[in-house]
Design goal:
It is globular, with a radius of gyration of 24 Å. The chain is an alpha+beta fold. Helices cover about 30% and strands about 25% of the residues. Helix 5 crosses helix 8. It has 12 helices and 14 strands. The N terminus and C terminus are likely disordered. The relative contact order is 0.12. Strands 4, 5, 6, 7, 8 and 9 form a 6-stranded mixed sheet that branches. Strands 11-12-10-14-13 form a 5-stranded mixed sheet, sandwiched between helices. Strands 1-3-2 form a 3-stranded antiparallel sheet.
Amino acid sequence: MTLARKSLTIGIASALALAGLGAVFAEGDGKAPAGGSAVPIDASGSFEVSGVDVDVKGKDADAARYGGWRLAQRKGWEMLSRKLTGKVSAMSDSALDSLVTGIVVEKEQIGPTRYIARLSVLFDRNKAGGILGVSVAVNQSPPMLIVPLEYSGGAGLVFERETAWARAWNRFKSGGSTVDYVRVQGNGPDSMLLNAGQVLRRGRNWWRSVLDQYGAADVLIAEVQLRREYPGGPIIGIFSATHGPDRQKIADFALRVDNGDSLDTLMDAGVQRLDKAYQQALALGQLSTDRLLATRPPGAKAEEKPSDEATEAATPTPEPSVAAGTAISVQFDTPNVGSVNAGEAALRGIPGVRSAVTSSLALGGISVMRVSYDGQIASLHAQLEARGWSVQEGPGVLRIRRAGGGGAQPAPTPQATEAPNGG
């Protein structure tokens, strides 16, 4: 299979802000910053309208480009309304600015006064659904840790170093999928916990410990084997989707591109196909967590029988047991990178919190942390309020913000989804 579509994304948020289009932005390019791996983009559950063609002229290249994005918003909204309601709906540019959460450049040509491109437009799911009067609820799976395993040149890599396969999963817009993917950034201890050797393990206790670190209930292993005919020439990718520690096979297929420059295109197409396979498996009931993985290991073995003198001592009152490692989604404001680290540190400092990892990052918006907590959600709620946080509670979700910080608008009701409120 030859893939003709080449996806290109560019970071243009600052340029748009200067042009007065601050509500519209392009997705990040998916490339890793120096010393780290790319973070997942668009986990917000946006409606995506792809294949929007524009051809616009302007007084200069920038004016033509901004005009093209404006036109893409209008055409994308018409296509979305026709798809969801069967009729065309029109809105003003200012109203669309508040609905659009991103513009992805699939292909573009920029001239001195002309802009020709094929774009994808992302619309805020909740706002767009409310305007169009359609249901926006998405029934998702339990949180599934996705492990991108790439074999290239005979070596298997996950997060030991950055790979094109891991970047493709971070570029993937997973908000519309029925599978709740837990995607890992690949920094810190990730390369030790998730590596090519780990995917061969079948021990449930070890896997349970790893999954607890990321607030996941099960694991999905997405594998690709790359075969290059010659440097810079055709690349064949053999993809497979498996589930659980035993690597139950869900699907496998092969894709091909004609030259090495199209590697990202190959990877993006592979991710799309694997996601469809996982969604179909979920619908057929094939992604249920096995009993041994879901069962918590028993506590430490009882100590040896105490001596008679110890028996005579007063027996302490047993404490009530609580659920171990409850997975809770915590939504928190992240205006900058420092607020992400501060939020994680604040949660980790609470007694009973095993781990707190940002699973969906939205700088300038609301990010989501996956928190593993030894207790009930109400207990974590109380501890956060005692530490000066303003907390709202939803089913399995807490929405936190610093008390007194932003009283102009009430905090949104937390939703039982992983996605941040992008836009």
